[in-house]
## 1
Amino acid sequence: MTRVLVLHGPNLNLLGQREPDVYGPTDLATIDQRLADQAKAAGAHLETFQSNAEHALVERVQEASRQGVEAIIINPAAFTHTSVALRDALTGVAIPFIEVHLSNIQAREPFRQHSYFSDAARGVIAGLGPIGYELALQAILQAAERN
């Protein structure tokens, strides 16, 4: 059974109410439920975790390594542009990960256009809204089938 961890960074708990013109009307619970349904249908184990605290996300990545998590989907949110610590945790545990963003960070303010994660990620999905998470999970599940 493929084990996948989905990490949501700061302020993603406000989805559905925070800047819906940028992030869309879908709330985080709906995104997580769609992913859970997709994982269940594929016979995979999926866990989700959201935190506004950088240290909590770092600790969850380190814990994932001890739990046998095989892949991570991460939307680092604002930490995309600031967190060397979270990047170091991901590269340190060597669990393949896909970076997801609801909005197209390349089309946003200049400070949002740099990611500390993209060069280490297996892939990056940005600007497709909530379906980006589902596409990331699909890619992980297909890769697991090939192995």
## 2
Amino acid sequence: MPTAVIVDAIRTPSGRGKPGGALNPVHPVDLLAGTLTALVERSGLDPALLDDVIGGCVSQAGTQSVNIARNAVLAAGFPEHVPATTIDRQCGSSQQAATFAAQGIIAGAYDVVIACGVEAMSRNPIGFAALGLDPYGKAIAARYPGGLIGQGVSAELVAQRWGISREQLDEFAARSHQRAAAAAASGAFANEIVPVEVDGVSITDDQTVRPGTTVEGLATLAPAFRSDEAAERFPELTDWKITPGNSSPLTDGASAALIMSERKAGELGLTPRARFHSFSVIGSDPILMLTGIIAATRKVLERAGLGIDDLDVYEVNEAFASVPLAWLAETGADPDKLNPRGGAIALGHPLGASGGRLLATMLNHLEATGGRYGLQTMCEGNGMANATIIERV
């Protein structure tokens, strides 16, 4: 059975996902195309060897519609015979892209694949409600009479169920910024970030990291997701705690990973950096929504034959601070190994690109520390989660 290895993993800097953000002037096709180009140039790979390009994107509308991965392949100047497809596993889209790429290699269907992702949140509105559309239909409305809800309310339900205080949420968020700022200052992100040229200026730093963030400052922010409708539906939520400060910000960004069989890497004279060890994906309660990472982690550890303490780093996406804190409480994991270079609260959450960002950050941390195993897991809209374990080689 072929072994799927990671030859390289990169990402763009994180831009604020609103007009005026550093990456807003760049069309998302061009943002992803530039990332694809940087990836093959770093390895010296002839893009004609690619069997497929699998891209993640959540808001596949407007400038991100009509198979953005294929459009980016053409924009990058890759040979026309290189195919591409765009997938949507919500926030885990590019993590799922990497999983599909690795599984295709393990199955013998591929030799060389790029898994990638992109999201220009400054250009595309979040959710179909903003477009005046109903994505659910009558059957889902009948199954969930109150209707499915936004992730912010789910984050409140998670905080309430696990007894997580506002102070704990803000402390976690402040720590994310502190860790990310320290990592950036030390040059820890230098090997994963590829610059983006915007109007003649090279953007190289994450725009979303706020080094001066404090718990005291975060405590002044008002809850962001309380509404009369939500309060009436969930009367148990008497103490609303999720704010813009302990949530991930709207973000623009792209990521990409070069994945191939170990045999092919040898033939091409390329050195693998890690191999894919185990995968899991699960569905979960679409109302609570954000807790699937707990079951996905248990499932992937069982498949891997490993315990939580066997892992050297955990990258758990910080969609909201309540999510990794609930994960910590359920898994008994070491908090010092959790997002040691900061997480999405500081580094941003460009939806379709976030899985690739987590992969790149985790891989570089393993190499810097001499660690062996890394876990990444991501909660996803409407109740899903992916988990992946890689092993440094």
## 3
Amino acid sequence: MGNLIKVLTVFGTRPEAIKMAPLVKELEKREEIESIVCVTAQHREMLDQVLKLFNIEPDYDLDIMKEKQSLIGITTKVIEGLDNLIKSVKPDIILVHGDTTTTFAASYAAFCNQVKIGHVEAGLRTFNKYFPFPEEMNRKLTGAMADMHFSPTESSKMNLLREGIEEKDIFVTGNTVIDAMDKTVEDNYKFENDILNNIDFEDKKVIMVTAHRRENWGEGIENICKALKSIVKRNKDVELVYLVHLNPVVKDVVEKHLLNEERVQLLPPLDTKETHNLMNKSYMIMTDSGGLQEEAPHLGKPVLVLRDVTERPEAVNSGTVKLVGTDYNVVLENAEELLYNEEFYKSMSTAVNPYGDGLASKRIVDNILYYFNKRKYKSEEFKGE
């Protein structure tokens, strides 16, 4: 076994798991690699759904989640857990994803043990350290410690170059979420949730909604819910499916405004396969999520982003996504524009997805082999923009 590259992949939340799953599967295929998976379970139940879907059995599970956990609590538990694990496993490289607290803490543990770090989905920036909070700083700090930077797009690569990262350490790969979607979306999909099976996706304009980010807590969520209520009341052909985050800070506000409203379905977060297929059947998406901004364009679905800034400007530039913030009037106006202006809808739904072509995981693994001298050439870069 001594000659194999030991790759320790670490993730803890559902969004990370979705994006790391195809990469784990690709690592498992390669005879030059010993693939080891550790989950922190920063999110427990939602993480487990993804592991089951992609048939991944973690080698290690830190199982850190507890109720009302703080960012400091998550960080210290992950650092301590990973420190012990790294000392016993002795990986050649640790792979982390994106911008979660697990990502930052795992990177710091690797750095303290002088283990190489590969950062998947590197280089996204809003340039405002509190938006999104704490993700912007998690991602930036991870980037400062990483040795290999797997940027999904050319513009994320440019962000890293401006921060002084050497070009030889940056690999433009596309986003692994597109690899995942090729395995989850089905044309004649039957939902596990019967409420969804009974929605008339043919004759109703179904809007899928998610909104839960910390920077929108309070007034932001209030405004979003008021706008959603008006959209449904004013437009009889619209049905709303809001996947409501379990956090009471969000859930209580959403239920106050939208519970028992006609043509509004409030559902708990769905598993990955259900979510991807709901997106595929919906008319449009309204969200403050980062991941949905990448996923929906792959399915030709316009996205209104309920945030003032995004670390994913490529989709805004390509026209598949529009930033609308949380102002009641702006949200309402843009939603109705998409509902009734066919040209506007068409321009957003037929734009090219700048995020991936389904080969990101392969490029990442090829580049790890290149980095450890098991392959002569870097992988060809993804050209998406």
## 4
Amino acid sequence: MTESTRDVVIIGSGPAGYTAAIYLSRAGYHPLMIAGAISPGGQLVNTTEVENYPGFPDGIMGPDLMDAMQKQAEKFGTDIIWDDVVNVDFAHDLKRLECESGDVVNATAVVVATGSTVRKLGVPGEKEYSGRGVSYCATCDGFFFKDLPIVVVGGGDSALEEADFLSRFGSSVTLIHRRDTLRASKIMVDRATANPNITFRMNSIVTEILGDDQGASKVMLKDTTTGATGELPAKGVFIAIGYTPSTAFLEGALHCDDHGYITVDGATTKTSLPGVFAAGDVVDSVYRQAVSAAGMGCRAALDAQEYLISQGHTA
């Protein structure tokens, strides 16, 4: 166990965290990033080709984009540790962060950029067959279901992107959505509907995932309009129904909305406590895009820099 003190600490990685790190390190503050031990790099690590991030006309793979951001942050002087913050005390001028390893870091300013985690269906069989048919990452597991029936649950961009990717592997891909219209952007809807390997089951929900010793084998469905039930073969069940902000570790230290997202002051990244700033999907429940997270990470860095100067900490 060690204890150290820094001018500024960034909790979490991903586009928001790395952008904040790049700006703060270039400003000379030599930030420490506590990037996470289990899933560093944010949601883009589990994303296939990113086509809408500026500067990449031919697209870029999500993990490659995160690797590049990490190298850029380190190039300018960011220190990165692969650990998780499990307890915080933001009540004093010097903020205290306790890591899962037992190490303690004190900081004058903190940027929270912990992002969000996948949301679970919460139906029987989901937990039992997790890793044995149930997955939350098409790029991680799609290959294992080559020539097998696959279902994707969800109706947003992520669900349609996963369905499109999985159509390269599965014998069939069925997208299940609880409403009669999709929430995804028009370009993603057009792409999915034009894909002959994707079919749609609208106004339907998964009520149970069934299987055997070999793994998942089918899902039980219920029609949300008629109440009719049925089943669908599914060796792969990919769940893409949204995210939950990663704020549980704060244990109420910062003000959050009813859904757990950290609230900030207007267009700034200032949280309910001075010296603590938040950026990315841990704040944003609407846009949830890599480019908007990166932009917010920039704002958090500038807000943190202004605060550090006000506290007499010049680079």
